[in-house]
Amino acid sequence: MTFSSSATRAEPASVDDLLLGWNGSEDLWVFAYGSLIWRPNFNWMERRLATVRGYHRSLCLWSHDHRGSPDLPGLVFGLDRGGCCRGVAYRIAASEVVPTFRMLWAREMLRGAYVPRWLSCETDENAVRGLVFLLNRRCEDYARGLSEDRLLDSVRRAVGQSGPCLDYVVQTEQALRASGIDDGRLGALVRRLAQAAG
Fold first, then answer.
1. Rg (CA), the chain
2. Alpha-carbon distance values, 106 to 14, 30, 134 (Å)
3. How far apart are CA 172 and CA 67, in angstroms?
4. Are the beta carbons of 55 and 79 closer than 8 angstroms?
5. DSSP string of 99-153?
6. Among residues 189, 192, 77, which one has the least CA distance to residue 135?
7. Stated pTM of the model
8. Domain 15-192 is in which class?
9. CB 75, CB 142: distance < 8 Å
10. How far apart are the first and last CA of the chain?
11. I need a surface site. Which of 9, 117, 130, 141 has the fewest CB within 10 A?
């Protein structure tokens, strides 16, 4: 099985393109760093803590629907360049790969905010090749260079179809801690949000 991780290759236009090189019989892995940790909405066979290097978790994407509105957009997580990210790798059974990946494509790829890549995910057992949705820095929803005050204000005030942006951020931080993942930056942000609410 061979999956290219090169940033210069053509972007996959469909799930079929994404799965080129898959033999149809091997289980595949998916890396979660945000809401997929606490709301995967797919069946998985195994769950491991994993690290992806070269990218970090960041509230760097405007949400005009699920966690915000056109008038008051919220923010959601993306994997932006630099650093590393501790998250969760899910092993998907071969028989579930196609429906699961179609669901993930519909969930993550409709607005062009993410770029799917096959990357090495380091786990305590061994490194696995996993599907990772990276931030697309060329998308119009990229929230580049926000001040912390504006970020905090957006998270506190925005509400969308899936609920308040604040709930999304807090749930993600809680899910990380429950999994044994310490994201110091996100923890500090949640503490500042709590102080403002109190």
1. 17
2. 10, 15, 15
3. 13
4. yes
5. HHHHHHHHHHSTTS-EEEEEEEEE-SS-EEEEEEEEE-TTSTTB-TT--HHHHHH
6. 77
7. 0.92
8. alpha beta
9. no
10. 53
11. 9
Q: Can you give the length of the chain in residues?
A: 198
pLDDT in tens, the chain (198 residues): 666 654 435 678 889 999 998 999 999 999 999 999 999 999 999 999 999 999 999 999 999 999 999 999 999 999 999 999 999 999 999 999 999 999 999 988 877 899 999 999 999 999 999 999 999 999 999 999 899 999 999 999 999 999 999 999 999 999 999 999 999 999 999 999 988 765
Side chain identity at residue 143, one-letter code: A
Two structure tokens written together for 135? 């931030």
User: For residues 71 and 50, what is the distance between their CA atoms, to the nearest angstrom?
Assistant: 37
